[in-house]
Amino acid sequence: MCGRFTQTKKVEDYAEDVPDLRVEGSLVPSYNIAPTQTVACIVGETSPIVVPLRWGLIPEWARDMTIGARLINARAETITQKPSFRESFKKRRCLVLADGFYEWQRPSGGARKTPYYFRMQTGRGFAFAGLWASWRDPAGTTVETCTIITTAANTLVQPVHHRMPVILPPAEYRQWLAVESSDPNELLSALAPYPANHMEAYPVSEHVNHTKNNESTCIAPAPETML
Fold first, then answer.
1. Is 2 a catalytic residue?
2. Given CB 3.0 to 4.6 Å as the disulfide criterion, which of 137, 146, 178, 190 pairs with 132?
3. CATH homologous superfamily for 5-219?
4. What is this structure's pTM?
5. Given 41, 94, 103, 146, which residue is catalytic?
6. Catalytic residue (choose from 2, 41, 94, 146)
7. In Å, how far are 111, 137, 147, 168, 210 from 129, measured between CA atoms?
8. Where along the chain do its domains lie?
């Protein structure tokens, strides 16, 4: 799964990979994004724009917001079958901006879990494959939310966790956002583990375990060996 990640780059850093991207305002660096918090996403095919979405998808048919906390991830293998996700997969796909994510490894013997931080070797930002939805509460207020798609872990992530978020190569961005013209089979084939040889990982301190902690200390390497 993906339950915590970072967005610390400037939004302009993503513009070179998304031609004609509309940038309104700036991103506030976040080193410890948790479910139900607001995240920056790109939506739109002909005129892509960065928008804030609440992390944890609330389908339009939901009775209340509580379901969102359980729908922070969507499995790539069942995305076309699950009622919570299949309509968004057809009509409302997005790119969730990121530059790293965390996973926790539990050593044998039941010891405390160790948090690891995963990022690109180049340090560049990237985008998770995501879905979004628009939900209206009984008072008529619209809430726009998103979920991050996950797939099987690559060889770098696998020793820590068996799942990882789908990281899309920039060449796939346009197709993922192209709601009307994309082939569903091609979209599904893109939901694959990102090449491990382009990534790196290292353990970080338990400082990241607390969602109230949101500063660069969260991604500081612990005194261990890099993966």
1. yes
2. 146
3. SOS response associated peptidase-like (3.90.1680.10)
4. 0.95
5. 103
6. 2
7. 33, 26, 9, 6, 26
8. 5-219
